[in-house]
Amino acid sequence: MTGSSDTSAIMLQTRDLTKRFGGVVAVDGVNFLLHEGEVHSLIGPNGAGKTTFFKLLTGLKPSAGEIIYRGRSIAGLMPHEIARQGIGIKKQVPSVFDGLTVEESLMVAALRVRSRRTATAEVAATIDRLKLGEIAGKQVGILAHGQRQWVEIGMVLAQGCELILLDEPAAGMTSEEVARTVELIGDINRDRTIIVVEHDMKFIRMISHRVTVFHQGRILAAGTPDDVLSDHRVKDIYIGNSAA
């Protein structure tokens, strides 16, 4: 991604964040920083801990450590309490309403946190921003996979979230849909901060200001996409010779 993030303020940080499942340590003393205005991607092989870390940010209770969002501890809060802090998540499998139209789905999301009057205005702005006008009146159940993903991103935006977490937003998309998603993320990043969990390295390079690599529950490397993806340790444990 061209340009640079605003590193003048730390939006979210974790301190010695740990999650154990019985005798398995899935996240092991992670110290992570997210700056205001970043698109920050999390990568790593299966079982590296990135998905568990992602869940800890959205309501999974940690075994130890802290999660600080805008100066306030959110570790262990319920998912709806975290949402009220301005953190929204788009899951890998879209959580959309197949029987509703796109516009109705966005309205349901907006009404969770807004009055009817302000929700109506926000839905209209979201449809315009994500260029969903052509499908606004269509039922979500008949939409293509990529369109469903965009609708769920719109549902998060309509709630006014300042920090948006995207779980594998490019998974299952066509190359055209991926290109459109890159554009959307760039536009959303003009006034929102974004954390992405993703496996597609090309996609990571196109969207990210910073990348953090997880391995065996810990942070292996962190930095710009070029620095991280050229790190021999990252190539050894994740990218592999065929992808490198």
Notable characteristics:
244 residues, alpha/beta, six-stranded mixed beta sheet, four-stranded antiparallel beta sheet, 9 helices, 10 strands, globular, disordered N terminus
Gist?
With 244 residues, the chain is α/β, with parallel strands linked by helices. The protein is built from 9 helices and 10 strands.
Spans of 5+ residues with little confidence (pLDDT < 50)? 2-7
Q: What distance lies between the first and last C-alpha atoms, to the nearest angstrom?
A: 20 Å
- Specify Rg, calculated over alpha carbons: 18 Å
Query: Total strand count, please?
Result: 10
Largest sheet: 6 strands, mixed
- With strands numbered from the N-terminus, the spatial order across the biggest sheet is 6-7-8-3-9-10
Secondary-structure-derived class: alpha/beta
Question: Approximately how much helix is present in the residues?
Answer: 25-40%
Q: Hey, roughly how much beta strand do the residues contain?
A: 25-35%
- The H-and-E topology, N to C, reads as EEEHEEHEHHHEHEHEEHH
Query: Which of globular, elongated, flat, extended, rod-shaped describes the shape?
Result: globular
Structure description:
With 244 residues, this protein is of the alpha/beta class. It has helices spanning 50-56, 79-84, 102-110, 116-129, 145-158, 175-188, 201-207, 225-229, 232-243; strands at 10-21, 24-35, 39-43, 64-69, 72-73, 87-90, 163-167, 193-197, 210-215, 218-223. The chain contains nine helices and ten strands. The strands form two sheets. It has a six-stranded mixed sheet with strand order 6-7-8-3-9-10, sandwiched between helices. Helix 6 links the parallel strand 7 and strand 8. The longest helix is centred in the middle third of the chain and has 14 residues, at 116-129. The chain starts with 9 loop residues before the first strand and ends with a helix.
